[in-house]
Amino acid sequence: MSRTEFVIATAIILFIAFCLGWFANWLIHRFTRVAAGDVAELDRMSQELHEAEETRDQAITYLQQREAELTNQLSQTEAELRAAMDGLRDARHEAEELRAWIDRQQAS
Question: What is the per-residue pLDDT for 14?
């Protein structure tokens, strides 16, 4: 094999390697490329997800505030109930004392 034949053979081999590398690169980009419609859909989905998260956060905040209000209202109602029960107990005790006093007055 002469020097010229060796250079031509090497050039052909390098050209074939270049073509195979270029073709492999083209195939990889062809299969991994994301279409513009897909990107737009992903952007839309991410925006909807963000809005859903904000709505969820607002709902959680509202529920926490509502729970605090109801807990406060329950505490006030329980305090009023205790006061009413104490007043009723005192009234019953006083009524018993009055009945006993009336019974003693009628007996004497």
Answer: 97
* Token code pair at residue 82: 């205790």
Pair 14, 46 in one domain: no
Residues in the chain: 108
Structure tokens at 6: 């060796």
Question: What is the spatial distance between Cα 44 and Cα 58, in angstroms, rounded to a whole number?
Answer: 21
**pLDDT tens digits for range 25-81:** 999 988 887 777 778 888 999 999 999 999 999 999 999 999 999 999 999 999 999
Query: Are 74 and 52 contained in the same domain?
Result: yes
Angle at 7 between CA 6 and CA 12, to 5 degrees: 100
Paired tokens of 64: 């926490």
In angstroms, how far is the first alpha carbon of the chain from the final one? 151
